[in-house]
Design brief:
single chain; 2 domains; MTERF; about 55% helix; 6 helices; mainly alpha
């Protein structure tokens, strides 16, 4: 992946990958590919800052997919006009995500809040 073994990012990457089965990495990589990322882009993001790519270690079913679908629907309804950062979307705590996105648009898209 292009890490420098004596660096802290190498230690973080090894730690993250050590706790993630290969099948989980592959499934997550497939999801990012469906969202338009190339394998090279996912690996590069992970290599640049493994601690900031916590999203790779999070549950697809419980966090990544529901939040992605929720924001996709907000975008399709024209409610969110600016790009959201990966951090705001996937790394935010449950409380922060609900406060900043779900509650903000609750009146506009009531049915969407049930997805989260």
């Amino acid at each position: 992946m292009g890490f420098n073994p004596p660096s802290m990012s190498f230690v973080l990457a090894v730690t993250v990958l050590n706790f993630m089965p290969n099948s989980s990495w592959d499934r997550k990589l497939d999801v990012y590919k469906k969202w338009g990322w190339s394998e090279k882009e996912v690996i590069e993001a992970f290599r640049k800052n493994p601690s900031r790519t916590r999203v790779l270690t999070q549950s697809l079913e419980k966090r990544i997919v529901p939040r992605g679908l929720f924001v996709r629907d907000l975008l399709s309804k024209g409610l969110v006009k600016k790009e959201l950062s990966v951090q705001a979307l996937f790394e935010a705590s449950e409380k922060s995500f609900i406060d900043k996105l779900v509650n903000r648009y609750k009146g506009d898209v009531h049915e969407l809040s049930e997805v989260i």
